[in-house]
Each structure stands twice: as structure tokens, then as C-alpha cells.
Amino acid sequence: MVEQLSPPGKSRVVIEVWSDLGCPWCYVGKHRLQAAIAQRSDADRFRIVVRSFELDPGAPHEPEENVKSFLRGHGGTVGDVLRAERRMQALAGEEGLAYSLDRLNANTFDLHRMVQYANDRSRGFEFFSTVQDGFFAGTLDPHAPDTLADVAEAVGLDGRRAREILASSEYADRVRADRDEGLELGATGVPFVVFDRRVAAPGAQKVPVYGDLLQQVAGAVPSGLSLPTR
Predict the structure, then answer these.
(1) I need a labelling partner for 26 at 20 to 30 A (CA). Which of 87, 104, 156, 210 fits?
(2) Phi, psi of 130, rounded to the nearest 5 degrees
(3) pLDDT at 46 (0 to 100)
(4) Which positions fall inside the DSBA-like thioredoxin domain (predicted)?
């Protein structure tokens, strides 16, 4: 289902994505959205901004096995979780995405605080995407502060400043405010994507659906047109 928020316009498009690290559909949906944008000859017109939405604010800070985490939050059986994970792994593989079954989950509040810092410096999507891709590939531990600081440095942020933030409670209010705003806009889970504050799309849509939404808010683009990078 796609929800219309307000009439379409003609301006450069900001795409806000309410997301959480450990959400498999957020991972897949992000790459589908990127693929839809890349298909347009005016791809530089679009800016993706990550907004914070903790799915499990009460999750423990100590990492736990993915199966245990899921059962704690959703119930069911170990077999149910493993079957669902294998289906998700197969789906991700069909789209060329790495998907480790040996992930460890933990509270994501500190990660979201780092996303807020990165957003202030126009690196939020790059930072979050790097962490999320590494997490699902099984090559990165997102629950280690040093790892988050290293990723921050890798995407052009100040590593020392990142460590200061992680050792404090900075940006906590903004993380909570993001989640509240998402709920006000109609999010009941993630991913929840809002295109230029005009159209909202809950869930991980297919690439053609995202393409239609881009056209709805930004218009069709003649073949070969290239807009300058901001």
C-alpha cells in the first residue's frame, strides 16, 4: 500500500527512510530503492536521509544470537526462525546481497545516535549503509564502539568526535524524536519511506514500485538527461 501525503511538486527530492539496523527487509528495501534511483538518468537529483526507528528499544546491550533475539521479541520456535532466515537469505541472494545467518543482535540506540551525528554532516546514509551492509554480510560488528568510530572515519567523519559521542548521551533526544515523527506519519514498522514529504511507502517495495514513486514525485526524465550534482 502507498499512502499519498500531499500533492506532487517539482523540487529536488529528499527521500527519508525510517529504518533499523537488524531489520532484514530494511536491508533489502534499501538496495531496491538505490536500484530504482540508479535507473534514472537524473539519479543525482535524489538524496536519501536515514531516520531513526528502533524496533526493539528494550533490547539488551550485550549481543545475543539472532535466533534468541527473535524468539525474545516475537515468540515461535527455533525452527520457525531458521526457516524464515533461510528464506530471507535466499531472497537476498537473488538480489546479489550477502546475508549471514550468524548475526548477533543487540540494542541499536548508540548506532542511531551516530546516524544523527552523521546526518548533521551529510554522511548519514553512507555511514548507516556501510554498517548495515557489513552487519548482514557478517564482516562487521556494529555493537562495538570502536567499529562504529572506524566506520565514521572511513566515510569522512571525525573518529575522535565519534568516540566522544558514543561515550556520552548526545543525540538521544533526536533518536527518540525521529521514531515519534515516523509514527505520526503512519509508520507501524520499518522500512518506511517518505518521498519529499508527499508520498509514503511502508515496507520493502519492489524496484518497479519505487521507480513509479520516484516518477510520481519527480516526474519522468527524458533519456540522456543529466542533472548537476548539488
Answers:
(1) 156
(2) -65, -45
(3) 97
(4) 14-214
Measure the CA–CA gap between 212 and 113, rounded to whole angstroms. 32
How far apart (Å, rounded) are the C-alpha atoms in residues 195 and 65? Answer: 35
How far is 5 from 200, CA to CA, in rounded Å? 7
pTM of the predicted model as reported, rounded to 2 decimal places: 0.90
206 vs 202: CA distance, rounded Å: 12
3-state DSSP helix/strand/coil percent for the chain, to nearest 5? 50, 10, 40
The CATH classification number of 3-218 equals 3.40.30.10
Position 160, amino acid: R
State pLDDT tens for residues 187-201. Answer: 999 999 999 999 999
Q: Residue 12 and residue 25: Cα distance in Å, rounded?
A: 27
